[in-house]
Design goal:
The protein is of the alpha+beta class and 371 residues long. It has 2 domains: 5-231, P-loop containing nucleotide triphosphate hydrolases (Rossmann fold, 3-Layer(aba) Sandwich), CATH 3.40.50; 232-360, OB fold (Dihydrolipoamide Acetyltransferase, E2P), CATH 2.40.50. 23% of the residues lie in helices and 34% in strands. It contains 8 helices and 20 strands. The chain has helices at residues 43-51, 93-103, 108-121, 137-149, 167-184, 195-201, 219-224, 229-234, and strands at residues 5-14, 17-27, 32-36, 58-63, 66-67, 78-81, 155-159, 187-192, 204-209, 212-217, 239-247, 255-258, 267-270, 280-288, 293-295, 302-311, 315-322, 327-333, 346-351, 357-360. The protein has a 6-stranded mixed sheet with strand order 6-7-8-3-9-10, with helices on both faces. A 5-stranded antiparallel sheet has the order 13-12-11-14-20. The longest helix has 18 residues, at 167-184. It is globular, with a radius of gyration of 25 Å. Bound molecules: adenosine-5'-triphosphate and magnesium ion. Magnesium ion is lined by residues 43-44.
């Protein structure tokens, strides 16, 4: 049985230090939910609270309607996978996977059946008699995953399970993890500080900073409409610049964000604002994704000088020092253009204004709402 996890005004303190001041969150049944944030923001702390290895200093954690705050870890029916595979070195693959069932005194015939099925699910049937020392990192992580899932937990918790693997294997394993999670349909909380990995595996992501959730949403939502400048720069890359939001009595349709304090004539009209500003001028922050910039031959636009380029196969990343002092990044898709940029080249950039994001001056709130 899969469950819904509710964190209701959860507080975590270590002595005087408040790590999580007040966190509320609902993780749906069967969902692949990821906690993403910089090192030290409290991801592992929260995961361990859900698992029962950390005390809770305030609020409630519930599995469906049951408060689990003081329930021992063993009674929470949780499967866990950690960064360091933590499989038993003295047991072969099959015994490792069977461990939780043997421990629960499940009848041997049933153990045999469930382990065989699980080995097939994570595709390591052929390795069942091997000892862990003769397995690759990815294979060991499959064993750890099989061992966690075979007990049919209500909740699967994973803390940076792929961070010990090399880049290629990480991509392969994250696809495998996602596929396996969908096939067993267990409510899953996944911790990572790798934003690409989070986007690849998750149904929804919560972005954390200093114990506070900044935004929760599907990967696309968060990428397209980050709630604040922190999220805009943490998920994917963004060029952040100052601008002026201008509205006159005549602007019925919406606002104009004027970047002409930066480069003459680059005003963008913004119609999907979340609120109606009073006529006048307001200072704002604007964030623009690398793929939202395009090169232009016009006189108008954001002018600058190439600082460097990174060739990444089917596209290149290009870094520009804009004349207004901002650092910008744009991508060139080599399918559409095979141009090579050299440091010192002059370029003019324009932005796809439908897609850019506009925040208040402090960068704490996105002023746009529509998708
Ligand atoms: N047992 C502890 N006693 C005191 N402080 C702790 C303890 N465990 C963690 N902390 C502090 O709590 C904060 C959050 O730590 P946590 O391990 O949850 O971060 P994290 O988001 O998982 O980071 P990382 O990505 O590096 O794993 C950190 O400031 C850490 O120093
Ligand atoms: Mg951690």
């Amino acid at each position: 049985m899969s469950v819904k996890i509710i964190c209701d005004h959860v507080v975590k303190k270590y002595g005087e230090a408040v790590i999580i001041p007040d966190l509320s969150l609902e993780i749906h049944e069967g969902e692949f939910f990821t906690l993403l944030g910089p090192s030290g923001c409290g991801k592992t702390t929260l995961l361990r609270m859900i698992a029962g290895f950390n005390s809770i200093e305030g609020g409630e954690i519930r599995f469906n309607d049951t408060v689990i705050n003081s329930l021992s870890p063993a009674k929470r029916n949780i499967g866990m996978v950690f960064q360091n595979y933590a499989i038993f070195p003295h047991m072969n693959v099959k015994k490792n996977v069977a461990f939780g069932l043997t421990n629960r005194h499940v009848p041997p015939e049933e153990i045999e059946k469930r382990v065989a099925k699980m080995l097939a699910t994570v595709r390591i049937e052929a390795l069942q008699d091997r000892m862990p020392e003769r397995l690759s990192g990815g294979q060991q992580q499959r064993v750890a995953l099989a061992r966690a899932i075979v007990i049919e937990p209500n909740v699967l918790l994973m803390d940076e399970p792929l961070s010990n693997l090399d880049a290629k294997l990480r991509v392969e394993m994250r696809n495998a993890i996602k596929e396996i999670q969908k096939s067993v349909n267990i409510t899953t909380v996944y911790v990572t500080h790798d934003q690409e990995e989070a986007m690849a595996v998750s149904d929804r992501i919560a972005i954390m900073k200093e114990g506070i959730i900044q935004q929760t949403g599907a990967p696309r939502e968060i990428y397209k409409r980050p709630a604040n400048v922190f999220v805009a720069t943490f998920i994917g890359h963004s060029t952040v610049m100052s601008g002026v939001l201008r509205k006159t009595e005549l602007d019925l349709g919406g606002w104009t964000v004027n970047l002409d304090n930066l480069s003459p004539g680059t005003g963008v009209s913004v119609e999907n604002e979340s609120e109606t500003a009073l006529p006048g001028e307001t200072a704002v922050k604007v964030s623009i994704r690398p793929e939202e910039f395009y090169l232009s031959d016009d006189v108008e636009g954001l002018h600058g000088e190439i600082g460097g380029s990174v060739f990444l196969g089917f596209y290149s990343q290009n870094f520009v020092k804009l004349d207004n002092g901002s650092d910008a990044e744009f991508v060139v898709d080599h399918k559409s253009m095979e141009r090579e940029f050299k440091p010192g080249d002059r370029v003019t950039l324009k932005a796809d204004i439908e897609k850019i994001n506009v925040f208040d001056e402090t960068g704490t709130r996105n002023l746009l709402t529509a998708a």
